[in-house]
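USER: I would love a firmer grasp of how sequence relates to backbone shape in proteins. This is the protein in question:
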Amino acid sequence: MSSFRFTAALASGKICAAFCKAFAPKRGSNLPGAIALKFDPRFLRQIKNIDPAKTILITGTNGKSTANNMIVHAFNTAGRAVCSNLEGANMKPGVATALLKNTSAGGRFKKEYLILETDERSLASVAEDLKPGSICVTNIQKDQVQRNGDPDYIYQKIKNVIADAEGLTLYVNNEDPRSKSLAEYLTESSRAVSFGVAQNARGFMAEREWEVTMPCPLCHDALAFKWYNLAGVGAFDCGSCGFSSGGPADHVISEVDYDGCTFRADGENYKLAYTAAFFLYNYALCVSVCKGFGIDADTLKRAFESFTNIGGRTEEFFFKGKRVRYMRIKQENPETLQSALDTISNDKDPKVVVLGPAVVDDMVPHYSNTFYTFDCNFDPLNGSGVERFICFGDTISWDMANRLLYAGVPEDRVEIIATDADEKIMSSIAECGSDNVYLITWIKKYEKLKVLAG
């Protein structure tokens, strides 16, 4: 019966994948796998020829899509045959879909390596089926409170996977306390490899009044940060139990030259194609994994020079003489919002910032709030030459404007558009004084505005 169920799952999934490719490509990254799993919930574990030692799962709150795609690109550059879910479908149906497309009619995996971006909540079930030899944890931070609640809920889920694994190589972020502490729960047959980024010009000292620390993931007393590379990511120490970021990580990115677009890692110089500070941790993880799998520095250099990040993170369009740069954030995720604010703050030219937090309606219950903006520091943005702030949206535009007022932005520099009407938003952008415009909103709204811009 088990063999029959697997055969039916494989056949139905492949038929669905062919149908989606021809008639519904937008559903092709998830639906085939969902159908296969309906026929056989044990579908993944029955695929033959998958080598756990060559199976890598990449999880965490932020950066897993970029890190996954960067690592896959490096492996491809090295001539390795890789199966991955590059479209970002990172839950179990998306994983199953990626495997469907790379499995023979007889149920044998056709590639050498399996590298998968994996949703934090799905990690346990995916790891149980695939028994990965390597797991990478980018960071564990606040995200999607209506789904995940507190970050410690996700931490416990990942921790349980780590504690149950044998012979695992765990890649941890040396400057993210939750990620690094997972190494404490490894079994004797497993090992940890740490990656990190040295203090650099885009970092900041931990001495500002707005900074809020976090509890130590081991003893739960307050952590003290010395400096930050990103919000909640930097050199830290627990005065109670001694847990800390400690000395240098196993693989460290240093000598970052944002103007020259280079960095140094493991004694080699590399090209920095994406200069937002948070990208450095994706590069650091990629270097760590590639070195662990025997990819040499020259190959890695070629990979970084030719890597193109997935669309939708930072893009731009032109409208009525305005250059509109889109800074995507993950709704209800203060770290990605802070990264966007910091990137905009580094541009000291006169500019307009357009803010449109949206209702999160991709799951039930729908949700809207601006509480996560109070975890962010708006002071550098307020002092970076912003001539006008435009807050739009029919749900929380006034809340967003209030957050700016709390940050000391003069009321006469804040415009409120209490609507989601695309034409009205674009009209305000066209009428603003500066031709240097930054837009922060969710991806669906950006895509609609870009269409209007032509």
Remarks:
- DSSP finds 15 helices and 18 strands in the chain.
- The mean pLDDT is 91.
- Residues 382 and 409 are 6 Å apart (CA to CA).
- The radius of gyration is 23 Å.
